[in-house]
Design a protein that fits this description.
The protein contains 14 helices and five strands. It is an alpha/beta fold. It folds into two domains: 50-134, Arc Repressor Mutant, subunit A, CATH 1.10.10; 140-373, no CATH class. The protein has a five-stranded mixed β-sheet with strand order 3-2-1-4-5. The protein is elongated, with a radius of gyration of 31 Å. The N and C termini lie far apart (122 Å).
């Protein structure tokens, strides 16, 4: 009797187990199939992304994607030391970096575009900007010898007056929007338009190529103070004796330690000063166009605040300036766009004594006025 009962119990357990197995099979059929894939190796590139396909398949027009031409990209990759870009390699690091700089988007957007983790994009952008910044001494250089005469002729043509043949540069400051740094020092970055910014002082040649840059001062600092703390002023690096650079009313008109010629203050006295200011404005427009080209190409500097720590902002700005020079040397010129413009820095007080450049400016104004009255239309067209 007990044996028969035990046999019936075992049969019931077997039936119950079969029912549970059948139910589990039904549930498994309803679940989505899981494909067993090999784990992705470190630094493995998804080659079928449209951004990488456009570059590696040799498409010529890359400006809509990377904001610079293939010639400029190839020149940049040749200049970079490949030994410092391990893992993802120089091409992927450069492409991700210039894409982020050119479009001014977040790391997550770049990560979706290239199908790589956002943390990887952040790391590659930081290493890429540092590597491009290291090219500063090779790409941003002051002209010497015959290069000074070539630069002077470019400014004479820009000003439509041969009196500016000894002008070898234009100097001005550019404000880049940033996130307000934490703490009380964050207020120091508010400029006169009441948005946080960091300044870049730059000297450029007649084509808009940067000859010298000085980055890092908060937006509230006056242009004159930025100038006096830069190496180009403290060490009298540029221009050499006998030459001068032009600046706007935010700079002092001086002849020592470097010669900077600014326009006459309004209202001007007489036709001679008016003519000089007109020619001076044409020469100074070169640096404004250089800043416009910089922000038109590298949208991270245009209007939206840089989504990085303020300590990393100087590296980003310097990298963009280096890239602009590389593009200009490759013949890759960007159309200008409207930037923030002058933020209304008040002019400094007049400089008197041996450091004043008023005497040089008066001589230049007299020369401009005389040449304009006797100018040959076939040499320089009066604007």
């Amino acid at each position: 009797m007990w044996e028969s009962l035990l046999q019936l119990h075992k049969s019931a357990l077997c039936r119950r187990e079969r029912r549970w197995r059948a139910r589990l099979r039904q549930i498994a059929m309803l679940l989505p199939k899981v494909q067993h894939r090999r784990p992705r190796r470190y630094a493995q590139v998804v080659n079928n992304t449209p951004l990488l396909v456009a570059y590696f398949r040799g498409e010529d027009d890359l400006r809509t994607i990377y904001r610079l031409s293939r010639q400029s990209l190839d020149a940049l990759i040749r200049l970079l030391p490949h030994t410092e870009m391990r893992g993802w390699g120089p091409h992927i690091t450069v492409l991700i970096t210039v894409y982020w700089l050119g479009h001014g988007v977040t790391y997550s957007v770049v990560a979706q575009a290239f199908q790589v983790p956002a943390a990887t994009v952040c790391r590659l952008v930081h290493s890429g900007c540092q590597a491009i910044k290291a090219l500063r001494s090779q790409v941003i250089q002051l002209p010497t010898g015959q290069g000074l005469d070539v630069t002077g002729q470019a400014f004479a043509a820009a000003a439509n007056s041969p009196a500016f043949a000894r002008c070898v540069g234009a100097i001005d400051g550019c404000h880049v929007r940033i996130k307000t740094p934490p703490g009380p020092e964050g207020q120091d970055y508010l400029n006169r338009k009441l948005f946080p910014s960091m300044q870049m002082q730059a000297v450029c040649d007649g084509r808009g190529k940067f000859l010298n840059i000085f980055v890092g001062y908060p937006g509230s600092v006056h242009d004159t103070r930025v100038l006096r703390n830069s190496r180009i002023y403290r060490e009298a690096l540029y221009p050499p004796p006998g030459y001068y650079i032009v600046g706007d009313g935010g700079y002092p008109c001086i002849s020592h330690p470097i010669a900077i010629i600014t326009p006459y203050r309004e209202p001007v006295e007489g036709r001679m000063q008016s003519r000089f200011n007109q020619r001076h404005a044409k020469a100074l427009n070169v640096i404004e166009r250089a800043f416009d080209m910089l922000k038109a190409r590298w949208r991270c500097l245009l209007s939206k605040a840089l989504e990085v720590e303020h300590t990393f902002v100087p590296t980003v700005i310097t990298a963009c300036a280096v890239l602009q020079n590389i593009c200009l040397m490759a013949g890759d010129i960007e159309d200008c766009t409207e930037a923030d413009g002058d933020i209304g820095v008040p002019p400094p007080g007049p400089v008197r004594g041996a450091r004043s450049g008023h005497g040089l400016r008066d001589r230049l104004a007299a020369q401009v006025s005389e040449l304009q009255e006797n100018m040959n239309d076939h040499d320089y067209c009066a604007g």
